[in-house]
Here is the input.
Amino acid sequence: MISILKIPMNPIANLKDELKKMTPLSIALGHDNEVFVLLREEQIPLIGGSFPATITEKSYRYQVVHLKDGQKKVLDLPEETWNYHYIQPIDDGHILLVCARSYYHDAQNIEENARVYDENGCFIRSFCLGDGIEHVFVTKNQEIWTGYFDEGVFGNYGWKDPVGSSGLVGWDASGGKMDSLEEDTEYYIFECLALNDVPNEGIWFFFSLESMIGVRKEGLTKYYSTEDMSFKAFAVKGETIIAYRGRWEQHAFFELQREGNEYKTVRKLELMKPNGKPLEPQLVNNRENKLLFLDGNELYMYELKSCV
Here is the structure.
């Protein structure tokens, strides 16, 4: 039986005022400990009660909360018709908002579900990142990486030849396709559940069926097994990973150590809030050796040091 390490945590920010009328959709860590939170005022109805809309007839209000150096700035986007799911920092001071879905109507009409705004809410550019997006990650050198869930891999919303068929795609900052796993036939990426980036090491991704971690750099991929683990966010430092498994209301953190081509679970972590209760995030994000969580009104950040 593995040991359990309890780690006290303190919130880095409180969003009580912002969440009085808004619902959190996505959180993101920037490159210099910046934090971004995407909020929406109303819930967008599902199509037929099952499928998310892409573009809506009714306009919806979004807000982006930007936290940096103890300062909070709120950007208001009052009349948006895109159904946004993800936020990432991009360019120099811009934000990338992405809808997880995109319709392929025909070759001349493909929905551009990625949209870039400046810090004043002015629209800059748009492009298509494909349908069925599970994760979006913008690296420090401004590469965009998208991981896809099953509908993005097999095709839906009109996509007979889906962009995300390989499970992972890399783009430049303007949406030009740079890389994918289409020619990498060692594993079939049915569902990409987590993404991270370690400078000079490449893009890291976790996929579900084989419970494997892949590290993609310069068109080549190294793979590591994880003892049938499953997780949706992870921090990396050296040969250590802190993984967060948050499916089916199971909030669990694990430390993994690499031994050869395998990451082995060495202990479980319990991140404890000031009230003595364990952290139960509703939203998570990661960048390099850090994990970001939203629990209720509070934001928490965990940093993986050399020794946990």
Summary: The longest strand covers residues 55-68. The longest helix spans residues 150-154. The mean pLDDT is 94. The chain is about 0% helix and 55% strand.
